[in-house]
């Protein structure tokens, strides 16, 4: 195993009220190769990236290989991502259908708009928010110009039956502010659905500081089931259900093997992905988890 995180006593200045001990040193393997660290908040257990280059964050997304902002199908990685996306879209639709009868949905950080396009085709009233200009234009072309906005959440004067964040929460600088605003934009008995990587999964432990889902500094925050619960409790919300995204274990393992320059990347990634999902059947610690969240009564 590679550099399994170990807690130290190194103290770090707080970020947004989060403060604690360093647990890991790592690099931006995807783009810049710059050095970063991850710290564990002493109150919630939320892990956070330090430093957080908020004034220059867009620079770390400036790559044609950043797949969630494109519809790329050129490279083998892009083709695998697009195949997995079809499966995940149906999983998300089925989850929402089983969770609520509501039809009005906001996707915060909608990327290239595939999820909202899928929901729109299935009779949902959709609105997407996307700050990235390229992804914003792509999503507008799919679901209509009036259905995608690039503004602050506080400027939206609507409430929604469902608000989704598919691998978005970990990217948001103003974490506390956004969670507070998300709650305000839910209808009574509305549902917040958040999908994030889980750093307690087997593949995270195995790959250590080359685990692709750390993805610093684009991922500013890092979660597990306990820290998500502690975080949302501050806002009067609770987890109602947790479900896995099993394909993520394979995709994240494949990216991690790529960062290691492994010539047998596909075989090794498949093995680690299978092992991670197998172990998670007992522990519940899948590579990525979907949290269904409601307001506490």
TrEMBL record:
Coiled coil: none annotated. PANTHER family: METHYLTRANSFERASE TYPE 11, TRANS-ACONITATE 2-METHYLTRANSFERASE-RELATED. GO terms for biological process: methylation. Keywords: Methyltransferase, Transferase. CDD domains: AdoMet_MTases (cd02440). This is Class I SAM-dependent methyltransferase. One of its GO terms (molecular function) is methyltransferase activity. It comes from the Bacteria. SUPFAM superfamilies: S-adenosyl-L-methionine-dependent methyltransferases. InterPro entries: SAM-dependent_MTases_sf (IPR029063).
């Amino acid at each position: 195993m590679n550099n399994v995180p170990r807690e130290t006593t190194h103290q770090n200045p707080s970020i947004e009220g989060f403060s604690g001990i360093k647990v890991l040193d790592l690099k931006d393997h995807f783009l810049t190769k710059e050095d970063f660290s991850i710290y564990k908040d002493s109150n919630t257990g939320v892990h956070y990236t330090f430093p957080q280059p908020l004034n220059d964050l867009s620079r770390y997304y400036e790559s044609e290989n950043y797949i969630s902002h494109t519809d790329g199908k050129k490279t083998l990685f892009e083709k695998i991502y697009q195949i997995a996306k079809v499966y995940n879209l149906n999983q998300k639709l089925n989850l929402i259908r089983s969770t609520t009868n509501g039809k009005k949905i906001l996707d915060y950080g909608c990327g290239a708009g595939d999820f909202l396009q899928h929901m729109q085709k299935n009779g949902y009233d959709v609105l997407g928010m996307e700050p990235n200009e390229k992804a914003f234009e792509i999503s507008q072309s799919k679901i209509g110009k009036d259905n995608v906005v690039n503004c602050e959440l506080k400027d939206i004067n609507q409430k929604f039956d469902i608000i989704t964040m598919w691998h978005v929460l970990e990217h948001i600088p103003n974490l506390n502010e956004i969670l507070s605003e998300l709650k305000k934009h839910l209808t009574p008995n509305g549902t917040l659905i958040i999908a994030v990587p889980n750093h307690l999964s087997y593949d995270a432990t195995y790959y250590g500081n080359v685990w692709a889902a750390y993805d610093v500094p684009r991922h500013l925050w890092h979660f597990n089931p306990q820290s998500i619960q502690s975080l949302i409790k501050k806002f009067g919300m609770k987890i109602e259900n947790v479900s896995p995204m099993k394909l993520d274990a394979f995709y994240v393992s494949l990216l991690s093997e790529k960062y290691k320059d492994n010539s047998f990347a596909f075989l090794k990634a498949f093995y680690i992905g299978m092992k991670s999902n197998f172990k998670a059947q007992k522990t519940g610690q899948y590579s990525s988890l979907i949290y269904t969240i409601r307001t506490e009564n």
